Amino acid sequence: MKGIRLLVGIVLFGSIWGLMECVLGDYLHNAGIMAGALMTGFIGFGLMAASRRIYGIAGMQLGIGLVAGLLKYLHPVGGCMLCSAIAIACEGIVFEIIWRSPRVDINRIKGLEMKVSMGIISGYVIYAGGYFITHILTPVSASAPLYLSDLLNVAPKILSSSTIAGLAGGLTLVAVLSVPGDLVNRIADVKKEVYYPIASIISVLCWLGILVLS
Amino acid sequence: MKVERVAPVVAILLIVVGILSTLHVQSLQEKADGNYIKINGNEFIVSEFTESCSEKEIETSAGETYTGISLSEMINLSGIKNPGEYKYEIIGADGYSKIVEWNHIKKGIFSIGEKETIFSDLPKQFWVKDVAEIKVI
User: Fold this and answer.
1) Same domain, yes or no: B41 and B29
2) What is the three-class DSSP state of A206?
């Protein structure tokens, strides 16, 4: 039963992220604001960090990234849907790598300095990782040419824009960890009679929102 | 080594790398002159292209339609012989660059307004904004 609870949580958080990417991400992209870095630093990382805090299960964020990436791919408006979808899916993988060690348990991080530092590291590396990986996988999956020099030339731009994601990540982790532990526990232990219907309704509403926007 | 000691150092290092990269990108943008594009070593005024190249409309796989001038005609203006034998590195003012082959160039357009290359058969990752140079390689 715990497996189904986690699966529903993955779909829920992934759907919220996917909808936010399609609505807010596209809006920021069209407005010429650094959509990718802001969305990753505040929304993507925020949702993954919150879900890790609530459920405390490693591996879940990989699924959340995949669901969000899939929903972004199904929403053919705005920026590069294939590039963005691959980047979002990969951001979940990078999150798992950073937060894999038991020594960086999100629920045991103490001190503002450590919270800000881990947030900066997470936001920066997740965004840069997703950006680099999509520059390799997009040409491969679209049967387009892939050159190492392209990757090297785009590196300064990636490392530059990741700074915003890093700073956003610092703020986001402090915000996520400022939620009192007992409130997090109450959300985590919510009764199945409430959890499943609410999670399902929110997820379906997110998908409908994406369909309406497409 | 304790994570509490390493994490702040790594975070500061990443921010420093980010700031240095931003300065590098900005220095490239300052060097680029928005009115000119260098193709195969020759400088062209952007407005020249509208007079010398035909307008073309393309549709992407997502069903979006774009209008611009023919990218292949633009490259031919540089006087290159046998263009199909080369690859083309399209470089943006911020240093972003993509290498594309002639068969993609033939399906591409150049949007004068955004100074952007658009391809109907390549992902948007290959579209370069604010083009500063097209190198023949």
Assistant:
1) no
2) helix
The CATH number of residue B46's host domain is 3.90.420.10
Q: Is A174 on the interface with B (CB under 8 A)?
A: no
* Secondary structure of residue B11 in the 3-state scheme: helix
Question: Three-state SS for B37?
Answer: strand
Whether B70 and B116 map to the same domain: the answer is yes
- pLDDT given for residue B114 in this prediction: 85
Please choose, from the candidates B38, B116, A135, A23, the residue with its C-alpha nearest in 3D space to the C-alpha of residue B108: B116
CA A11, CA A97: separation in Å to the nearest integer? 21
Distance from the B2 Cα atom to the nearest Cα atom in chain A, whole angstroms: 9
Cα(A199)–Cα(A118) distance, rounded to whole angstroms? 29
CB distance from A134 to chain B under 8 Å? yes
Residues B20 and B54 in one domain: no
- Most distant CA pair in chain B, distance: 65
| B56 and B19 within one domain | no
Residues A14, A65: contact at Cβ < 8 Å?
yes
CB contact (8 A) between residue A157 and residue B124: no
Please give the helix or strand (H or E) that residue B59 lies within, else none.
Answer: strand B55-59
d(CA A83, CA A77) in angstroms, rounded, equals 13
In percent, the amount of chain A with pLDDT more than 90 equals 71
- Please state, in angstroms and rounded to a whole number, the distance separating the CA atoms of residues A187 and A193: 13
Contact criterion met (CB below 8 Å) for A119 and A98 = no
Q: Which residues of B touch A124 (CB under 8 A)?
A: 11, 14-15, 18
Low-confidence residues in chain A, pLDDT < 70: 1, 76-80, 214
What is the interface pTM, i.e. ipTM, of the complex?
0.89
Q: Which residue, chain included where needed, has tokens 């150092």?
A: B9
Q: How are beta strands B131-136 and B36-39 bridged, if at all?
A: parallel
Q: In A56-147, where does DSSP find H-type helix?
A: 60-73, 81-98, 112-141
